[in-house]
Amino acid sequence: MNHPSQAGVSSSGPSNSEGLDDPNFLRKMDTLKFQVPRSTYCDVCLGDAIENIKSGIPEDLLSCSDCGRSGHPTCMEFTNNMIISVKKYRCNEWKCYSICGSSDNDDQLLYCGDCDRGYHMYCLVPKLDAYPEGPWSCTLCLGEFHNNH
């Protein structure tokens, strides 16, 4: 299992779905980004890596790769699957969506319940015309966590 300090949500994506089939695509995209200074405290509880104020125990911070804002995974209510699968974290202010790379049309947005990647319903193949009922997982996580394709 990855340690939370090695985690992040990948939000970069290709203009079409071809790159998503390449298991190294997200890693390649991550190397193209510039580094920003990281906040040393959690935006939620105001604790640091030495102490999560909510739990009173040490917990590494995840930092947004675009603005540097940070948070403890537990304060941000990340599931274990999210912590395992995230490659690069982006806070909601900087999140763009996995297939098209755009942050437009929030009303058409789905977040994967396992990895927290965002997807527009119209970018999915096949596209969705309505929000699914209950939890939704992207195809990457269906294969990784649910053994479905």
Automatic annotation (TrEMBL):
<dbReference type="InterPro" id="IPR019787">
    <property type="entry name" value="Znf_PHD-finger"/>
</dbReference>
<feature type="compositionally biased region" description="Polar residues">
    <location>
        <begin position="1"/>
        <end position="18"/>
    </location>
</feature>
<keyword id="KW-0805">Transcription regulation</keyword>
<dbReference type="InterPro" id="IPR013083">
    <property type="entry name" value="Znf_RING/FYVE/PHD"/>
</dbReference>
<dbReference type="InterPro" id="IPR001965">
    <property type="entry name" value="Znf_PHD"/>
</dbReference>
<keyword id="KW-0804">Transcription</keyword>
<dbReference type="InterPro" id="IPR019786">
    <property type="entry name" value="Zinc_finger_PHD-type_CS"/>
</dbReference>
<keyword id="KW-0862">Zinc</keyword>
<dbReference type="GO" id="GO:0071565">
    <property type="term" value="C:nBAF complex"/>
</dbReference>
<dbReference type="GO" id="GO:0008270">
    <property type="term" value="F:zinc ion binding"/>
</dbReference>
<feature type="region of interest" description="Disordered">
    <location>
        <begin position="1"/>
        <end position="20"/>
    </location>
</feature>
<protein>
    <submittedName>
        <fullName>Zinc finger protein ubi-d4</fullName>
    </submittedName>
</protein>
<dbReference type="GO" id="GO:0007399">
    <property type="term" value="P:nervous system development"/>
</dbReference>
<keyword id="KW-0677">Repeat</keyword>
<keyword id="KW-0479">Metal-binding</keyword>
<feature type="domain" description="PHD-type">
    <location>
        <begin position="93"/>
        <end position="144"/>
    </location>
</feature>
<dbReference type="Pfam" id="PF00628">
    <property type="entry name" value="PHD"/>
</dbReference>
<keyword id="KW-0863">Zinc-finger</keyword>
<dbReference type="InterPro" id="IPR011011">
    <property type="entry name" value="Znf_FYVE_PHD"/>
</dbReference>
<keyword id="KW-0539">Nucleus</keyword>
